[in-house]
């Protein structure tokens, strides 16, 4: 984990987006679901604004994480050896 990411996660900034880098696919993956929200593990999306449908609905947009979930996200990424970051906007 980079020092900047650690400071952001520990600074208590509410409502940040979490993302990790998929080196093999050369793209950032954004957290779209927290563990327990319709699944056992994190849900991911490559489109942070979600998928737009013909009826105007949007599914699986990136979600903002509270400080509690930022800590869990950081731990998950660190345990899996993933490069991650927190963003104010997507």
Which terms summarize this structure?
two-stranded antiparallel ribbon, 7 strands, single chain, 90 residues, alpha+beta, five-stranded antiparallel sheet
How many DSSP-defined strands? 7
What's the overall average pLDDT, rounded? 86
Principal-axes shape call: globular
The assigned structural class equals: alpha+beta
User: Considering DSSP H and I runs of 4 or more, what fraction of the residues is helical?
Assistant: 10-25%
Listing every helix as H and every strand as E from the N terminus to the C terminus, the arrangement reads: HEEEEEEHE
Largest sheet: 5 strands, antiparallel
**Ends apart, CA distance between termini:** 20 Å
Question: Could you name the ranges where pLDDT drops below 50 across 5 or more consecutive residues?
Answer: 1-10
Describe this structure in words.
The protein has one domain (3-87). It has two helices and seven strands; from the N terminus they run H-E-E-E-E-E-E-H-E. It has helices at 3-10, 67-80, and strands at residues 16-22, 27-33, 43-45, 51-52, 58-59, 64-65, 84-87. Strands 1, 2, 3, 6 and 7 form a five-stranded antiparallel beta sheet that branches. It has a two-stranded antiparallel sheet with strand order 4-5. The radius of gyration is 13 Å and the shape is globular. Mean pLDDT is 86; it is low at 1-10.
């Amino acid at each position: 984990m980079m020092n900047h990411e650690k400071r952001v996660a520990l600074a208590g900034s509410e409502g940040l987006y979490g993302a990790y880098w998929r080196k093999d696919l050369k793209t950032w993956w954004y957290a779209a679901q927290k563990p327990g929200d319709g699944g056992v593990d994190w849900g991911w999306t490559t489109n942070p604004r979600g998928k737009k449908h013909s009826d105007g609905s949007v599914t699986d947009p990136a979600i903002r994480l509270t400080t509690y979930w930022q800590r869990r996200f950081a731990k998950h990424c660190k345990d899996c050896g993933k490069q991650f970051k927190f963003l104010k906007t997507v």
